[in-house]
């Protein structure tokens, strides 16, 4: 198999695998830029996946047809934002340790969603959805040599939304007053407070944005990949998004690059058997690559990754 | 009579401070169960029959009780692991991964060697502790040398542990299906005596080791000089450094010991409960539950023992709750999550208690 057809195989899969990570990591970006660590991304994805599937089934029943998964994505976004309040209230208002509260959120998300699935369906997983989001082929653009095959011939519309979102987030975080305030809260909350920015309100908004985007991320994964929901549907994608956020150095474009790279590693680990050069490489190297690279990035071997200054601390008015 | 009064006063103040210390965990447990009851009500179940079935699923049969103690065993170890690092100011989220490599290493030694019992079992346990310690060493050294936050590194190390351990089992140790061979009796913790006592539950000698580990943790932290240093570093690294303690060494040491305890927790499962290691499709959650155990137990030996009993009981009792009250077993996960939430948000409880106290003093 030559290199082009290999890439034809791998690149669409990589983009496909990267899409939920991009959504979720962009969500994490808002929260961490405002100084709130969000270990709960995994749990928020679980809630998103649960809501995405359940509401697709509901909307199918109501006769929404092919639009059902799209409406369900919006519902998952809302539910993700509401569920993230758990983390926000605990870590911002009640000054709980942000990491512990994130861990609690992960427990709660998986417990609550599987509990509800058992109540609704009488077993550990939901029914399969019929109305799914399918791969699309973009007219005209797909005829571009090489690139057309990679990016436009069989790609999920959700991936385009994710790419588009990267630039929106970049614009919001770096080019708007809101973004400046958000970052100032994460870097130096006292200075921000002195300038009249409501620190805790900014943090609440940031955490809810992370919940909304992680909700979409989880729903996109469930709707495009698994088509149903069970306790094992989301298995580490949230933590991998966190890794993408750090490896991407808390920057939207970095997040895009890191998520694509992790998606690439994932699709390689699946497609490796068909590629002569990689057939003999044990799968385990590709499986652990995202995690090892994140550790190396943090340790400064792949460019030092330094987070916002005031991350992980709750802000108490008047304290120094 | 005059002599008794000061003693009585002392006892009273001690009891009062104990009560305040216990208030947060006890109230958190109460709120957790209360919220669980509301969820049962809303979902159309009867909370009283639900909790009665849960209670029955722990104490109703000696077999269940034995299983609860069996479930406690790895939870005690993972709780100690989290607490030990926490005392040095480190949050070890990597207990899960350290436990997985400890499980694999202990079983590997169990399967590969042919030795007499007195050497084989200690060697297998040691292998588990060393593997876990090694897995804790990496985030420890990165934290000490390069100031990398241990939380993210340990999370990533969890996944590395999962995939690497699966890789080894799949390629080098696979016996049948998804698991390795059974370990020989010379490396096994299983105990006919304890099984007989508990109507053939899977309770094994590891339970006694876990109690011993609680004592060891208490002794290490509170009765040795090194333990004093570790706690001092946890309170205030700058002051400890100024007092001449080597903060970096203590950070690495704390992570290694913590990982060692976690690895032993894995060995409990490998050498005790199951007698083999298996390809894991997802995490065991024993390590993550350790965070809950340590948090509720306020990082003290006795607290860890008691909260491991609570969480172990919840997990074992959940089966009966499903069987006889038809409540989904995930309810206990919700209760556990909420208990962590309330303990972590103790600011609220503290605030209320302070208010009550100052009101009373105001009068």
Automatic annotation (TrEMBL), chain A:
Keyword Transcription regulation attributed: no
InterPro entries tied to this protein: ABC_transp_permease
Q: Which UniProt keywords apply?
A: Cell membrane, Membrane, Transmembrane, Transmembrane helix
UniProt keyword Methyltransferase, yes or no: no
Compartmental location: Cell membrane
Q: Which domain of life is it from?
A: Bacteria
Main location class:
membrane
The UniProt entry lists membrane topology as:
Multi-pass membrane protein
Family annotation (CDD domains): TM_PBP1_transp_TpRbsC_like
Residues crossing the lipid bilayer are 6-31, 43-64, 70-92, 99-117, 155-174, 204-223, 284-303
- Could you tell me what this protein is called? ABC transporter permease
């Amino acid at each position: 198999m030559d290199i082009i057809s290999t890439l034809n195989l791998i690149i669409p899969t990589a983009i496909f695998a990267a899409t939920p990570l991009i959504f979720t990591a962009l969500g994490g970006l808002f929260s961490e830029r405002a100084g709130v660590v969000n270990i709960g991304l995994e749990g928020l994805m679980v809630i998103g996946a649960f809501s995405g599937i359940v509401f697709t089934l509901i909307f199918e029943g109501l006769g929404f047809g092919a639009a059902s998964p799209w409406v369900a994505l919006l519902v998952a976004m809302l539910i993700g934002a509401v569920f993230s309040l758990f983390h926000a209230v605990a870590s911002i208002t009640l000054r709980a340790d942000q990491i512990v509260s994130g861990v609690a959120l992960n427990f709660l998300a998986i417990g609550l969603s599987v509990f509800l699935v058992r109540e609704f369906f009488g077993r550990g997983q939901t029914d399969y959805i019929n109305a799914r989001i399918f791969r699309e082929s973009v007219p005209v653009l797909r005829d571009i040599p090489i690139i057309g095959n990679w990016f436009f011939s069989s790609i999920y519309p959700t991936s385009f939304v994710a790419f588009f979102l990267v630039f929106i987030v970049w614009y919001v975080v770096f080019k708007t007053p809101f973004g400046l305030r958000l970052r100032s809260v994460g870097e130096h909350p006292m200075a921000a407070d002195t300038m009249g920015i409501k620190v805790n309100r900014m943090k609440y908004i940031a955490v809810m944005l992370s919940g909304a985007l992680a909700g979409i991320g989880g729903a996109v994964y469930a709707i495009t990949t698994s088509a149903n929901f069970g306790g094992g549907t989301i298995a580490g994608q949230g933590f991998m998004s966190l890794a993408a956020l750090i490896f991407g150095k808390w920057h939207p474009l970095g997040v895009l690059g890191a998520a694509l790279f992790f998606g690439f590693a994932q699709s390689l680990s699946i497609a490796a058997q068909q590629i002569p050069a990689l057939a003999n490489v044990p799968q385990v190297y590709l499986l652990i690559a995202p995690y090892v690279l994140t550790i190396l990035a943090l340790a400064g071997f792949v460019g030092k990754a330094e987070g916002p200054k005031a991350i992980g601390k709750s802000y108490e008015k008047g304290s120094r | 009579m005059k002599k008794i009064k000061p003693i009585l006063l002392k006892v009273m103040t001690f009891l009062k401070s104990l009560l305040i210390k216990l208030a947060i965990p006890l109230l958190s447990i109460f709120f957790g169960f209360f919220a669980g009851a509301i969820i049962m009500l809303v979902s159309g179940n009867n909370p009283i029959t639900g909790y009665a079935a849960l209670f029955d699923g722990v104490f109703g049969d000696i077999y269940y009780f034995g299983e609860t103690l069996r479930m406690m065993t790895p939870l005690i170890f993972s709780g100690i692991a989290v607490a030990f690092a926490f005392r040095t100011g480190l949050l070890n989220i990597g207990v899960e991964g350290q436990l997985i490599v400890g499980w694999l290493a202990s079983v590997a030694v169990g399967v590969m060697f042919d030795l007499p019992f007195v050497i084989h079992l200690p060697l297998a346990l040691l292998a588990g502790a060393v593997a876990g310690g090694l897995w804790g060493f990496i985030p420890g050294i990165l934290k000490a040398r390069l100031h990398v936050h241990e939380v993210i590194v340990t999370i990533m190390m969890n996944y590395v542990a999962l995939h690497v351990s699966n890789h080894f089992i799949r390629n080098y140790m696979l016996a049948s299906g998804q698991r390795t061979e059974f370990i020989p009796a010379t490396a096994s913790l299983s105990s006919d005596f304890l099984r007989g006592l508990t109507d053939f539950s899977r309770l094994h000698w590891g339970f006694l080791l876990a109690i011993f580990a609680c004592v060891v943790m208490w002794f290490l932290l509170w009765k040795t000089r090194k333990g004093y240093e570790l706690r001092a570093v946890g309170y205030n690294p700058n002051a400890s450094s100024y007092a001449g303690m080597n903060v970096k060494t203590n950070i690495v040491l704390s992570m290694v010991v913590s990982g060692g305890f976690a690895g032993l927790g894995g060995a409990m499962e490998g050498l005790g409960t199951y007698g083999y290691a298996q390809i894991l499709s997802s995490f065991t959650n024993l390590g993550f539950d350790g965070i809950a155990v340590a948090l509720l137990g306020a990082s003290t030996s006795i607290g860890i023992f008691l909260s491991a009993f609570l969480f172990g009981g919840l997990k074992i009792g959940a089966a009966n709750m499903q069987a006889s009250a038809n409540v989904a077993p995930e309810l206990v996960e919700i209760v556990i999550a909420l208990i962590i939430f309330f303990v972590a948000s103790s600011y609220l409880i503290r605030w209320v208690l302070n208010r009550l106290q100052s009101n009373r003093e105001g009068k």
